[in-house]
Amino acid sequence: MRRLLLIATTGIACALAQGAPASPGLCPVRQYGAVGDGKTLDTAAFDRAIEACAAAGGGQVLVSPGHYLTGTIRLKSNITLLLDAGAEIAGTSDLTQYEAFNPPDGNPPTSTSSPWHRALVLGVNVENVSITGRGVINGNKVFDPQGEEHMRGPHAVLFGNSRNIALRDISIRDAGNYAVMLEFTSDVEVRGIKVTGGWDGVHFRGGKDRPDRNVTITDSEFYTGDDSIAGWFWEDTVITRCILNSSCNGIRLIGPAKRLIIHDCLFFGPGRFEHRTSRERHRTNMLAGILLQPGAWDRTEGRLDDVQISNVTMHDVATPFSLTLTPGNTAGRIEVNGMTATGVYRAAASIESWAEEPVESVTMRGLNLEFAGGGRAAQAPVQRPHVDARELPVWGIYTRNVRSLELQDVRLNVIQPDGRPALMMDDVGRLELDAVHTPPSDVPALALFEVRELSLRNTDLKTSVRGAPPAPAK
User: Fold this and answer.
1) Distance between CA 45 and CA 74 in Å, rounded?
2) How far is CA 318 from CA 174, 267, 308, 407, in A?
């Protein structure tokens, strides 16, 4: 049997097999000097434990029950940060104790300032890293008067230029900015986590030539003041079996994405945590359930394609679904299969292109949407949206500049009578409506403007037509 070598750090040891540095090590942070009393700064002890574990070729850094006050904990490759039940890592209020990721040049303005990328738990240029266990990462509401909006401080967890990352079962509370930030990071599993408070829950950003790829977010709960899940330049993303409660949007895509799946998720408002940066004091109303708006915030040119949304349920949202294209962006195939929403209080579901190119193909099946209603007939033309859902001259579904649109098995209802049409289609190449139903009304349910090919089946919608009359479908 090989003799055990005790690697001493400040007189405290982690046991590793001599001559086998690649074997996994177990490095409890308390053996490296961590106190865990909520008063002593334990950053250096975490650093020593992580260094020793990395030197052994990787392994587990064990955080046993306690309240560990720290600045930035910098992770290394092949490390698992294991938070026992009862363990809490809490951010220090001393902003000088935080380190940051430096993103590549040429990113949109919100990503260029290094202090904006500070984090309590930070991984840069790492791979094969996990944060797991039943413990808590507490951002401790560490705000910065010099930060974005004169308040945003460090993110709770940030990975930059990294791959093969897993976050499992942990809770993240009261982040000074985002709970989880992923930048130029791929092959990520987020499973079974719970986020409460702070701004965005999971926010990931890639680049035009380097998107975040293969990100899965599953079986997780988000109770956030800002968007629950957001970001730009995604490829091969799956969001499934999640609960999303927000005082902003549930899922907000602000840049291009390809092969995005959203399945079996619950969205509901109002938010349990206020939207801190809103002009409206203590605002908690939830905005859109799913908001796809590439290029609406910063110029993020590219394509949105192969989006599949299925089996989602929403309650008390401003709008269930909104897609908006801006110049420089294109959209291919968008499918919604199974969406139920009640208590929609502000705006119709919408699919709009304000770019030169139309949205190419939209299919929506199995929709059951209930709106507050109570609106009056509107005469003003529809204006290009900014970044949030806005009222429209239609209460149910609005489309603009779409090449091919199919609605099948769709039921739209209003709580209060409404003076607007239920559906409005403007500049649509091919429109197919099959089993689309709306409540009785004196107002024509379907308003058509420049629809070039029309097919109506299994529906008795009263229709008004303006512009070029639609050609019969072949």
Assistant:
1) 12
2) 25, 11, 21, 21
The single-letter DSSP state of residue 145 is: T
Task: Note the residue count of the chain.
Answer: 474
Are the CB atoms for 112 and 130 separated by under 8 Å?
A: no
Number of Cβ within 10 Å of residue 262's Cβ equals: 27
DSSP 310-322: EEEEEES-SEEEE
**Residue environment code for 196-226, b if the CB has 16+ CB neighbours within 10 A, otherwise e:** bbbbbbbbbbbbeeebbbbbbbbebbbbbbb
Looking at residue 217, its amino acid is I
Q: What is the CATH number of domain 4-358?
A: 2.160.20.10
Question: Which phi and psi angles does 27 have, rounded to 5°?
Answer: -120, 95
What string of DSSP letters covers 364-383?
Answer: EEEEEEEEEE------SPPP
Work out the burial of residue 252: count CB atoms within 10 Å of its CB; fewer than 13 is exposed, 13-18 middle, 19 or more buried.
Answer: buried
Residue keyed to tokens 């460090």: 154
Residue 466, SS3? strand
Comparing C-alpha atoms, which of 407, 406, 317 is closest to residue 367? Answer: 407
Domain residue ranges of the chain, discontinuous segments joined by +: 4-358, 359-474
d(CA 128, CA 138): 23
Residue type at position 164: N
Q: Can you state the percent helix, strand and coil of the chain, rounding each to 5?
A: 5, 55, 40
Tens-binned pLDDT, residue by residue, of the chain (474 aa): 333 333 333 333 444 332 222 335 899 999 999 999 999 999 999 999 999 999 999 999 999 999 999 999 999 999 999 999 999 999 999 999 999 999 887 665 555 567 899 999 999 999 999 999 999 999 999 999 999 888 999 999 999 999 999 999 999 999 999 999 999 999 999 999 999 999 999 999 999 889 999 999 999 999 999 999 999 999 999 999 999 999 999 999 999 999 999 999 999 999 999 998 867 778 999 999 999 999 888 888 899 999 999 999 999 999 999 999 999 999 999 999 999 999 999 999 999 999 999 999 999 999 999 999 999 987 678 888 888 889 999 999 999 999 999 999 999 999 999 999 999 999 999 999 999 999 999 899 999 999 999 999 998 888 876 654 444 443
